[in-house]
Amino acid sequence: MDRLLVDCFVDAYDTPPQTIWIDLDAADDPIHGERQEGRFFHACYYYHGYCYLPLYIFSGPHLLCARLRPSNIYACASSMQEVERIVGSFCARWPEAKIVVRAEGGVRS
């Protein structure tokens, strides 16, 4: 599935883009009920509840990665591995493209 999302992005271009903007965001996905696997309380001031903490990576309207994760991790957890995978795929296909990565405050390099 990971490869398919990146391949769909690449297939959307007839010619290689000059610049590729990649946006990362970790967002809460509230959990209702008490028996979900990976259920944790996230006490951060903007989540403050039981939730999952998925990681999303987009380039414009194109979804490049969606990773469901428990909320007992830092928002940046595993983000570098995902960016390396995606950027590596872009560099292999479009070695001249400039790649810009933007991340929300909780996602760090």
Structural notes for this entry:
The chain is an alpha+beta fold and 109 residues long. It has one domain (2-103). It is 23% helix and 31% strand. It has two helices and seven strands, in the order H-E-E-E-E-E-E-H-E. The chain has a four-stranded mixed β-sheet. A hairpin with a 6-residue loop joins strand 3 (40-42) and strand 4. The longest helix has 15 residues, at 79-93. The radius of gyration is 16 Å and the shape is elongated. 19% of the residues are buried. The model has no long low-confidence stretch (mean pLDDT 85).
What's the quick description here?
The protein has 109 residues and is α+β, with helices and mostly antiparallel strands. The chain is 23% helix and 31% strand.
Summed up, the helix count is 2
Going by helix content, strand content and strand pairing, the class is alpha+beta
Give the overall shape: elongated
Helix content: 10-25%
Ordered list of secondary-structure elements with their pairings:
Layout: H1 2-11, E1 19-26, E2 29-30, E3 40-42, E4 49-52, E5 55-59, E6 62-67, H2 79-93, E7 98-103
Features of the shown structure:
three-stranded antiparallel beta sheet; 31% strand
